[in-house]
Amino acid sequence: MSINFFDPAPESYRNAADMEKDLNLKVIARAMAGEEYGDVSDIMETLLRPLRTEDAIEKRLAVVMDGCERKELVMEIRKILVKTCDSLSGCIKAVLDCRGRHLTEDTVIGANLEAVRTLVYGLAALDELLTAKKEGFLHSALDRFRQEFYREISPETIAEQKFFVDNLDSFKNKGAITLRGYFREGFYLKDVEIADIRERAKRIPAGIFTGKRNNVRTEEEVYESGVAFTNDILLQVLESLFPCLQKWQKMIYDMKKQAVFLAGCARLYQRGKELGMDFGVPDRKEKSMSVLYELSLALQTQSAPVPNSLAAPPYKAIIVTGANQGGKSTFLRSMGIAQVMCQAGMYVPAEKYPLHAYQDIFTHFTRREDAAMNMGKFEEELKRMQDILQGAGRDTLILLNESFATTTEVTAYQIAMDLAHACLEEGITLWMVTHITKFARELYEERRKEVLFLSAGRVAKRETLYKMLEKPPENTSYGMELYEKIIGGNEVEDQ
User: Fold this and answer.
1) What is the pTM of this model?
2) Cα separation of 155 and 123, whole Å?
3) Model confidence over 421-443: pLDDT tens digits?
4) Which of 189, 368, 429, 438 is most buried per CB count within 10 Å?
């Protein structure tokens, strides 16, 4: 039993923790959450659970884009589901806390009743919104949610349940509750249900004979006895509802996560447009990446960075070399972010982007050495690479950023060459930024058609900085250019 806006992806990337750091995904998740800081974890969870087929991506993409067009509607749904989910979790915890403790019957009933009331009021609020905004759902991919909701529970049932919970404790004010059930062996009631509730009960005569001589019970005694009996039955009824409460709690939690993600997509889409950023829809017919930019950097600087464009398929490897501080790592990150967003069923930070579903994505970026490391940097890099290679398979994407810069050039060259050949032979896609010039030049000399070589633009050659240009690998360094700019141009005055 489930109620969904879209089909959820069951598994996270195996490299999810590294991807979050390497691709600055937390920056994007925070921008999607806006001022709703509690939404970040739900958004991040969905971002890191990839869709693994093109059909699945296109189906979710339709829901996301409709959600962006109907932002206010999505925000209202999110608000109801977040409030209901949080309140219901607290109520169910209170019910569980009552168990095994010597509490009054009224306290236990009150905790159970509040949980039921919270659920019913949440469903009623959602029903009211779906009814009032029905036209906003019709002919939209969002209508799947409305249809699945009403398949699970009808408006008539919601109205009936709301009437019951509104009046369920009316007997305390001398109202009446009619229970329906039957006795089983041992004089136990079975399958008890609430048949009717009335705000005021008819008063009984002043005295009721019990059948015993000189034994008269007053109206109040009869009433109190009835309340005690009703309390006992009511508690049984409420406790029997607990499994249903837990089932709905799980459903509402899942609905909330999806609504939070859709609201985040709508919020980011609007924010990007306000800042002049282009968002494109991935297309499986598209053969190039056009006007691709690094989204996390754009959000931090509040402006669009220098974009890049390139033909993507049929390349199985993209090797990026060139000048230091030329934007190579930023470019690699821009591709990684776009692919993660694509496989989350989102728009991407590009004008055009090919829709392709990798079975998994791994990132291997350099790490700064810190006190938490229990091994040297090179050993730590090798350990992470071993984990990646053990998990990678055909149609997997690996992003390497300046890997193995901590060892000798000879060792780094041999590792890079072995890794590149292994990926190409096993059908693994490799996007790689490297400082290992010998490796890049020798791989280029192999003249493989499925490998694309890019180089960062250089000021010295009057090329645009941060632009990736298709050309053979060169022996390049930004060091001398920095020297000339900072020191070389400063003439020493004669004293």
Assistant:
1) 0.84
2) 9
3) 999 999 999 999 998 999 999 99
4) 429
CA distances from 112 to 100, 168, 378 (A): 15, 12, 57
In 150-300, at which residue ranges do the beta strands (DSSP E only) sit? 176-184, 188-198, 207-209, 216-218, 288-292
Question: What pLDDT, on the 0 to 100 scale, is given for residue 202?
Answer: 47
Evaluate the CA torsion angle 276, 281, 282, 283 in order and state its sign.
negative
Is it the case that residue 409 has pLDDT exceeding 90? no
Q: Could you give the angle at the alpha carbon of 355 between the alpha carbons of 352 and 357, nearest 5°?
A: 150
Q: Are strands 360-365 and 317-322 parallel, antiparallel or unpaired?
A: unpaired
Question: 475 and 437 in contact (C-beta within 8 Å)?
Answer: yes
- Dist. CA 168–CA 104, nearest whole Å: 18
pLDDT at 197 over 80: no
From the list 128, 147, 127, 123, the residue with the least C-alpha distance to 137 is 147
Query: How far, in Å, CA of 404 to CA of 315, rounded?
Result: 24
Q: Which residue has the higher pLDDT, 415 or 221?
A: 415
Query: Which residues lie closer than 8 Å to 420 by C-beta, 6 or more apart?
Result: 317, 319, 430, 432, 439, 443
| Helix (H) or strand (E) segment spanning residue 336 | helix 328-343
pLDDT (mean) for 22-30: 97
Q: Which of 294, 241, 319, 343 is nearest to 466 (CA)?
A: 294
Identify which of 227-241, 330-344, 376-390 has the greatest average pLDDT: 330-344
**Which comes out higher in pLDDT, residue 74 or 180?**
74
Find the helix packing angle between 25-33 and 40-47, rounded to 10°: 130
Task: Give the mean model confidence (pLDDT) for residues 162-173.
Answer: 70
Per residue in 119-156, pLDDT (tens digit) is: 999 999 999 999 999 998 988 999 999 999 999 999 99
- Give the other-Cβ count within 10 Å of 240's Cβ: 13
Structure tokens at 285: 């017919």
- The CA R_g of the chain, rounded to the nearest whole Å, is 32
Q: Could you tell me the two tokens for 112?
A: 């159970």
Signed CA dihedral, 195, 199, 202, 203: sign only: positive
Name every residue whose Cβ is closer than 8 Å to that of residue 42 and which is 6 or more positions away in sequence: 256, 257, 260, 261
In this structure, are residues 209 and 215 in contact, taking their beta carbons and an 8 Å threshold? yes
294-325 core/surface letters (b: 16 or more CB in 10 A; e: else): bbbbbbeeeebbbbbebebeebbbbbbbbbee
For residue 492, the Cα-to-chain-centroid distance in whole angstroms is: 59
Distance CA 158, CA 160 (A): 5
Tell me: the pLDDT tens digits for 109-124?
A: 888 889 999 999 999 9
